[in-house]
Amino acid sequence: MASHKLPPLPALRDFVHIYRLTARKILSQNYLMDMNITRKLVRSAGIEPGAYVVEIGPGPGGITRAILEQSIRRCDVIELDKRFMPALEPLVEASENRLFVHHGDALKFDIEPIWMDAKVPKHDWLDEPPNMHLIGNLPFDIASPLIIKYLREMSRRRGPWAFGRVPLTLTFQLEVAKRICGKISTLDRARISLVSQYVAEPKFLFEIPGRSFTPKPDVAVGVVKFVPRFEPLVQVVQKVVRHLFMYKNKEIHKCIKTMYPDDMADDLTHELLSYARVDPNKTSHNVGIEELADMSACYDKQCRRFPGLFLYYFEDKQPLEFLKNKPNAVPRVYGFTMPELNKEGISIKEFDTKWIPTER
């Protein structure tokens, strides 16, 4: 798929002037202008010739150029800032009908109709990840709520994931990227680590120093690639994770006990931790994804054995005899669902401190 020569990026001094970047730095917008890095980003994402790609927040098109250089079949870009539309028009003209620009907010934008209208082929979820990709270098204030939205869609196989196990590659502040990929027994381990690793297999690709961006941010950036799992590992993980991190510096058995009425807490906590082969004295930072799966599987069985247990909340202390007559007294049999987002989204900080399971 040969293409016309792509127009060059403006010189750095012209770029800042043309797009009035200083006026928008408060929105945490930082653009990659180094084509060596944008090409590395595209290669690391696994974008190959013939791919279907959606880029979130292309800005002036630095990453877009690197995508088009890969002889992709089609690239759709979603850009909220109208200032960049003139910069993207020459790329559209040079792309030979391969680049399509959409004006919209990524948090509200539904990607599925784009690929449906373009007759993009669907792939079975059990197949290998298709040559289809989502990629984006996002403003810091958008990256966190957007990954929560995408994890939810991924778990439901909606949006771009209606087409198969489509890989997702995004940039985050380095601290957030490390938390998403946080390993067992590290301080990076957090709720977002477990949830991300439950729905997908996130991989830290590389770090981008702040000096590579225009304007230069105060922090470094990490690139993370998410490949959806064949299926979420187990059910009811939301409630288990919430209780695991309720007192994240205390022993696990103290956290798990809060899931049960006082008269059942010791026996059911022992049963759950024994089933999952988890040391009751370790902390939540040391819980692996397989252990989380086993703990959640055991809790699911307990909730079915004791109707109403799933709705039990330790601060309310309502008896199971009362709760078992409530709707959803036992867990529904369905895949992992992320909490519904309001239109403004939710930040990683809010997710870690205010996340409440939808089943409550």
From TrEMBL:
Domain Ribosomal RNA adenine methylase transferase N-terminal, chain residue ranges per copy: 37-230
Enzyme class: transferase
UniProt cross-references to Pfam families, sorted A to Z: RrnaAD
Any one of the GO BP annotations: transcription initiation at mitochondrial promoter
Keywords per UniProt: Methyltransferase, Mitochondrion, RNA-binding, rRNA processing, S-adenosyl-L-methionine, Transcription, Transcription regulation, Transferase, Transit peptide
Residues binding S-adenosyl-L-methionine, per UniProt: 30, 32, 57, 79, 105, 137
SUPFAM superfamilies found in the cross-reference section: S-adenosyl-L-methionine-dependent methyltransferases (SSF53335)
Family matches, as Gene3D superfamilies: Ribosomal RNA adenine dimethylase-like, domain 2, Vaccinia Virus protein VP39
Keyword Electron transport recorded: no
UniProt-recorded Gene Ontology molecular function terms: mitochondrial transcription factor activity; RNA binding; rRNA (adenine-N6,N6-)-dimethyltransferase activity
PROSITE patterns: SAM_RNA_A_N6_MT
UniProt EC number: 2.1.1.-
Family of this protein: Belongs to the class I-like SAM-binding methyltransferase superfamily. rRNA adenine N(6)-methyltransferase family.
One GO cellular component term: mitochondrial matrix
Major localization class: mitochondrion
Entry keyword annotation includes Membrane: no
Compartments in which it is found: Mitochondrion
Protein name (record): rRNA adenine N(6)-methyltransferase
